[in-house]
Task: structure prediction
Amino acid sequence: MIGCKKTIRTAALLCAVLLMFSLVSCSKKSSAAGPAEKQKITLRIGSGHATSNPWVAVLDNFFVPEVAKRVAERTNYEIEWIKAYGASVIKLNDELEGIEAGLVDIGTTIIVFEPAKLMLQSMVYRMPFSCADPAVVTKVMKQIYKEFPEHVTEFEKYNQKLLGMGVCDPYSLYTNKEVHGLADLRGMKIGAAGANLNWINGSGAVPVNTSLNEVYQSLQTNVIQGTIQPTDSCYNLKVPEVAPYLLEANFNVLPFNSITINLDKFKSLPKEVQDILVEVGQEYETVESQYIVDIYARDVEKMKSEGVKVYTLPREEQVKWAAALPDIVNTLVTELNERGYKGTAIVSRYYELLEQNGWPRVRDWKIN
Result:
């Protein structure tokens, strides 16, 4: 009986030792393994312009790090970015096609370069003297996109999902002599590009098709005597050196660039990563428009300090200029309607929303 008890005690002691060893072993294994490693997702992002341009600067300084941060904090994934800015992969004029083909996963497209494919998104180019406030244009376009979702779904035709839109800084008139009103323009050759040439027809000036990269030399050699361009681009290209008169004319702030992701790539991503991309893309719009407001104010102050004369086109002169233009807004509406869009409703609503945000119409286009 005594031997039996000894055997039981020995067995119990052995079991206790084995249990302790097992617990220690498990603890070591658990400690060695640590938290589960995050899965890496590689995203290639690119643009035709360099990061010196404001819409790309916000893409790189806000969108890229914010997506990476939120994915790391809220999911079991991490983002590895491969950056291809400055036309290193997708070229200007070919950005939409490059994203469609998957040359990059996410990229910017300059809307004005795609007047046929993105006619709906570029409509404001043909609505001059609409609004010169980037924040208001962003707010209005967000509402337009909610009420008319074809602005968003249109990108699916090109194998892309729209994540966000950026706006440009106000278009202004740079000249080599003072211009205070419509009469001062008579006979002047004014350079502009694409749809912006419509802002000059009928004004008494002579429209000359001129790209931004040609503007400095064209002004220097008197091929043109003025140009209508976004301010930050002009300042960076030193245009005020040869056109030291700036007229803030309320020509327009425009939906300028889209941020899209290749649709095949988007569908391949985990749902939580998709949601973060959409979330940050929407926030990009507000951050970018505020950045545009800030750099415009900065650029104008710098130009003033460098001797540039800055004038504001009075409201009555804006009315005269707009009244002198051909009926380009109704031409736009007709073309949109003919292509199956709700042109009349969309363009009318855009003007209504501007008015609700403090920007009354310079011209009543009597939209058909």
